[in-house]
Write the structure tokens for this entry.
Amino acid sequence: MSSRLQTLFEQKKEKILSMFFTSGYPKLEDTRPILSALAASGVDLVEIGMPFSDPIADGDTIQMSSQQALDNGITLDKIFAQLEGVREEMDIPLILMGYLNPVMQYGIERFVTKAASLGIDGVILPDLPMYEYQMFYKDLFDKHGLANIFLITPQTSEQRIREIDALSTGFIYMVSSASTTGKVGDVSSVQEAYFERIKAMGLRSPLLIGFGIHDHASFTRACEHAQGAIIGSALIKALSQGQPVEEAVRGFVGAIHHPL
Amino acid sequence: MSAFQVNQHGYYGQFGGAFIPEMLYPNVEELRERYLDIISEPSFQAEFWQLLRDYVGRPTPLYFAKRLSEQYGTKVYLKREDLCHTGAHKVNNTLGQILLAKRLGKQKIIAETGAGQHGVATATVCALMGMECIVYMGSVDIERQQPNVQRMRMLGAEVRPATSGSQTLKDATNEAMRHWINHPEDTHYIIGSVVGPHPYPDMVGRFQSVISQEIKSQLMEKEGRELPDAVLACVGGGSNAMGAFYHFLDHPEVKLMAAEAAGLGVNSGKSAATTALGKPGILHGSRTILMQTPDGQVVEPHSISAGLDYPGIGPVHAHLFDSGRATFFYVTDDEAMEAGFMVSKVEGIIPAIETAHAFSILDKVKFGPEEIVVINLSGRGDKDLNTYMKYQQEHGVI
Ligand SMILES: Cc1ncc(COP(=O)(O)O)c(C=O)c1O
């Protein structure tokens, strides 16, 4: 595991706040200011979205932000340029999240090398199958100290969760319910039973809960069952209101930490 | 083991696989584990074949097209998939998949559709089996294929517009996949072509393979030989082509010819000629040839025919292209429309605009007088009357 991820999960056993946002949104050059504002607001971990034209695991909000970012002209090259020197500025773990095709076109080896050289700690590629990762990419990721983060859902079998756990080098992304991103609702008892079932498995990897977490209450509920939680669509909605992005981030993260 | 059948990992050469998010994994894995066993069960086979015969109207005729043959100086046979119930080959697959879905214990069906033929074929078998049906269709396609939208509704299906992207087949497929992610337990997704994650391409190919199976025995009857010299079909995702090629894949003496939609021209920027314009990439769960920008963003395709308006092709066709087993032709909107009007007048058969692309190959390749050329007439053109008429008004009588 990258030392930054390791340090985080060793030092903080609960209430890890992780935030996802789409690079290049709302404006092309907003990536870095948003990232800086998130770090300054005390967020523990950030997932930087790499937009794709056909994000099948995403709901309306992230579809919209991805399309807007692509219309703004975002590319992987630009994302990497925007992240240049980020390690002189912040120490929190940074994860790149997106779909496989743009990464493939960039060249997976080139991508991993570049990401690692910028101080990126891990990658989430939901449509990269475990089999392909194991066969073709694991050695490459390991060589560069880049974590590959897998998702599990309420439907993932116990045996498969064990395999994922054995293969994971960062944390496991526990998708809160069978859904695309951005669906909000209160954390239900069915979900809580699922969270507890996973917790009781005693996995070696830390667990973060994501999908549908959107405010202080849902964040707090989720944190009762895992080491922390991930918020994405709700932040993007806050960024879509036309406020300066630093202010929007500060206000949003503040309200997650300290409800009004 | 055939070089053109799927291998144990779900690949055709370098193409295929199952590139899906974890949310889809349990459903796709269940299918992968069970589809071959279910399909080979005697009760499945009995029900499938009985319905293909009595409900779909199979076998469909293999018709010797006398006037076309004279016109092109070769022997042209038409495989009349347009005479299937619902008017296209799509129902062969939807029937197979709904019987499978029932045996998997699913209660609800979703589908994507471009031309609406797959949507109609899905709505039809859902009515037949008393199952709930939701069909996603791009808003642009809802406009240009109105008759099929009305048919789906009359059959009891809900048609949901896909409003993202180019609002065509690709976007309808995205929406259907999102729906499946949100409803993993009780729903089966009937994909309409040989696309999607393994095992879909293989499964759909098997259900459509009845087309070439019949061609073989019908040719034997009419010509005393099982193998034609060439088989021609249009390729959107490639299900009718796969069905027509299937039993000839391992007979290299049978030329396989695929027509892709070139739209306004291969290099016009308004095209759906995937194999000419695409590179290996991943969309809708498989590695295939994909029209994309250098950054790996999917390019919006264009074709006058909704069923061919797709930026990828099935992985098996990517492999047939890559290996040279099939030859690909690029047919513009204009060429396809001209072929559509011509076939209507010469043979008294109005083809779907998708199918019209396949006929246009006759203008691009010279076949010998003794050669037997089978064209897969994948669907009838009633759904396209508006487009045909509008085209005629704009371009004068052809
Ligand atoms: C009549 C007809 N032919 C062909 C196609 C293209 O699909 P495929 O390439 O899967 O056969 C369609 C799709 O809607 C169709 O309706």
User: Anything to note?
Assistant: Chain B has two domains: 19-51+90-204, 57-87+209-395. Residues 25-40 of chain B form the longest helix (16 residues).
